[in-house]
Write a structure and sequence with these properties.
Layout (H helix, E strand, L loop, with lengths): L23 E7 L4 E6 L5 E3 L13 H12 L4 H7 L4 H13 L1 H10 L8 H21 L5
Antiparallel strand pairs: 1-2, 2-3
Helix pairs in contact: 2-3, 3-4
């Protein structure tokens, strides 16, 4: 991810909300996933690259998240994907919901990792496939499936 896409989250900073300002630098990395801690050169505020994204506070490493999406994109179901990576099916469902909720961030993540190559058609198809299954279940049982 390019640092130009980030902006200072400090509401009192003159550069707050302004991306491509050149005021954001890498401060350090932290955690098992080596997440970048960024710093605003204008006000000195530090913040995580994941703050405000669907991956904030995620316990899974990047490779596992990538494998979940890769498996689902190849046509494997939720339960089979969960079984393959020794995860709960609810964890796999959560990452599908994250893709629906913050589509752009998940798409950028998958493109950066080389999972999706032909634009966003693959991810849109995946989300449409699972959302249509959910709607069918909701109509037949009267209860939300995810």
């Amino acid at each position: 991810m390019n640092l130009d896409q980030f902006s200072c989250p400090n509401p009192t900073c003159p550069d707050s909300g302004k991306s491509n300002g050149g005021n954001i630098n890498l401060y350090t990395r932290y955690g098992r996933k080596q997440v970048r801690l960024l710093i605003c050169k204008t006000c000195g505020k530090t913040f995580s690259e994941l703050k405000g994204t669907p991956f904030w506070d995620s316990r899974l490493d990047w490779d596992t998240i990538e494998k979940i999406y890769r498996s689902l994109l190849t046509g494997q179901g939720i339960r089979a994907t969960a079984r393959d990576f020794n995860l709960s099916k609810n964890t796999v469902k959560r990452y599908l919901r994250l893709a629906n909720k913050d589509y752009g961030t998940v798409l950028n993540f998958l493109q950066d990792r080389g999972v999706i190559s032909n634009g966003d058609a693959q991810l849109r198809e995946l989300l449409a496939q699972f959302s249509s299954r959910r709607q069918v279940r909701e109509r037949s049982t009267g209860v939300a499936a995810m």
